[in-house]
Every structure is written in structure tokens, then in C-alpha cells.
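Case 246 in the screening queue. Each case pairs one protein sequence with one candidate compound; here the compound is S-adenosylmethionine. For every case the pipeline is the same: read the inputs, emit a complex structure as C-alpha cells, and attach any notable structural observations.

Predict complex for case 246.
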Amino acid sequence: MSTYYIVLIIIGMIILCILIFGLPRKKSIRKPNIEGIENPEVAKAFAKMTNILPFKILRKKIINRISKLNPSGRLFDVGCGSGNLIVEISEKFPHLELIGMDISAEILDRAKLRADEKQKKIEFKEGTVEKLPFSDESVDFIVSTLSLHHWINPQKGFQEIYRVLKKEGAALIFDFRRDSRKFFYGFLTFITKIIAPKPLKEINEPLGSIQSSYTLKEVENILSKISIVNYTISPALAWMYIQIKK
Ligand SMILES: C[S@@+](CC[C@H](N)C(=O)[O-])C[C@H]1O[C@@H](n2cnc3c(N)ncnc32)[C@H](O)[C@@H]1O
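Case 246 output:
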């Protein structure tokens, strides 16, 4: 490769770093999103979009975090959507008893299909995080990704997660953060306007997800109102990990 191209690549990388890390954080009012993904066209488009590279990279990061927490026993995915994560979890941790739950029957059908295609034994349940279909202290590990910003009552959702967690159990909740750098708003605007399938464009997704997500302070505020004491919030570029231990 000639020196000219090397210089061009270095300049390109410097510009990208300035855009990602240099642009200020967005200050905006939260715009609540739809709760469940019920529309069949939207469910189909969502299932398709979660196969693109940025989502695959995020799932890999989440699975690495789950690994560090040494999951065992019964793992429960709240708002499992089209089931990509729970199917990948079943590949990585075949010893776990897995249950995926979602408020939308439509998207659960897609998750069941995915699990059947991969021949994975996963139980799927319809229900809402605000009233989890489990008895007290009956689940070892709870994971939830990109669902928190949809919950109508996040305080009740966290309370329920804590209620069903066994003693010594752990929960990992991953979501966008609204106080992201402006670059990510630009990136998600580009995906929404150009790349996303039409049914998602029509409901302003995935941009709507970041606009309806919480800031770190807002999550802290929600958690401070309930009796969860052992938690950490780890901020990242455009997302955050909320880790709860019981
Ligand atoms: C953006 S999708 C994310 C799906 C999946 N976790 C993933 O990361 O690909 C959000 C999911 O949360 C579900 N959901 C929204 N509100 C919910 C609630 N109150 N209880 C359970 N699931 C909910 C939606 O139906 C949807 O499938």
C-alpha cells in the first residue's frame, strides 16, 4: 500500500475518533416509545434488522459480560424480542435452563421459530416485566437488552426483577443511554432513514429507541426509589449496563 493511502487512512481514523469521542453529549427530553412490538410487519423487520453487524457486535459484548458473571441454573431474558440473544446464550452456555419472555405474542412467535431452527430447547412465555410470571426468588440470572426504554413503569419492572431473583442471583440490563454523544444520534438517524426496513422507518426506529431511553442519572433516580442496594451502572459510548446482585 502506498504512503498516500496510509496517510489517508490515518486521517480518516483521526476524524472518526474526533466525531465519536469529541462531539458533546445530547441533552434532550425523553420521548416515550411504543410498549410491545405487536405489528407483524414491524416484528418481521425488527427480526431482520437485529442480524446486522452493529447488533451482532453488541450481543457479543453482552455475552462476554454474562460470562464474567458465571451464570448457572435458570436464566431469564426479559423482553427477549425475536430471540437472537437467548439463542446465542444457549449456544455459549448449554448447561442453563433458558426462558425468554416478551409482552408481544407476535415477536415471541419469531423467537420460537429461531430457537426451533437452531434446535434449541428454550421455553417462551408471554408476559410483562411489571408482573413477572415467576414466584419469588426462583431465577438465578436475568438478562434484558434494549427493552428497558419500552417499559411503561420501569420502577415496577426493576422491583419485579429483584423479587424473582434468587439470593446470590444477578441481573444484567443493557440499554441505550439518551445522554449519548451526538455522533450516535447521527449514526442512528442514518440507519433509520437509509438502512432500516420500511416498517421500522415508519415508526422512527431505531432512532426512537435512543430518544426514549434513559440517562444515567434517570436510571440512578429510578433505582434509588426501590430497595436495591447492590447495583452498578457502567456507562459506555451510547449504551449502559446495569448490573444488579441480590
Ligand atoms: C427493541 S426490542 C429488543 C429485543 C431483544 N431483547 C433484543 O435485544 O434484540 C424490545 C422488546 O421488549 C419488549 N417489551 C416492551 N415492553 C415490555 C414489557 N413491559 N415487558 C416485557 N417485554 C417488553 C418488546 O415487545 C420488544 O420485543
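Case 246 observations:
- The longest strand covers residues 165-176.
- The chain has a mean pLDDT of 91.
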